[in-house]
Amino acid sequence: MRNIIVSLAIAMAALPASAANSVKATVNGMVCAFCAQGIEKSIAKMDATKAVFVDLKSKVVLVEAKDGKTLDEKAIGAAIVDAGYDVVKMEPSTTSVDEMKAASKSAKK
């Protein structure tokens, strides 16, 4: 567990300080809809969160900010780790939750 926390701290330190409209996290350990739902609920409670989408197949969590709000990447990463999952990578994203949902639906067809 210590190695995971150290890895997360290193990854989080490399994040730019600038505001991101969306943040994409690559997450290991998610295997079912219950996993996705737990992550979605905890991140959706955050003040700046407009929408959250978890794609189990690609192991990605995408968080979109409310207009005029700034996402706290460290808090998002901490929420995912606190839920019991490993954050492999965290990065700003230009993809919206709606775009990711549409891409996920078309990939399932």
UniProtKB/TrEMBL annotation:
Q: Where are the transmembrane segments?
A: none
Q: Does the keyword Transmembrane apply?
A: no
Q: Name one GO molecular function term.
A: metal ion binding
Q: Does the keyword DNA repair apply?
A: no
Q: Where is the HMA domain?
A: 21-88
Q: Could you list this entry's UniProt keywords, alphabetically sorted.
A: Signal
Any single Pfam family the record assigns to this protein: HMA
Do you know which InterPro entries this protein is assigned to? HMA_dom, HMA_dom_sf
- The signal peptide stretch is 1-19
What name is this protein filed under? Heavy-metal-associated domain-containing protein
Q: Which organism is it from?
A: Caenimonas sedimenti
Ranked from the top, the taxonomy reads:
Bacteria, Pseudomonadati, Pseudomonadota, Betaproteobacteria, Burkholderiales
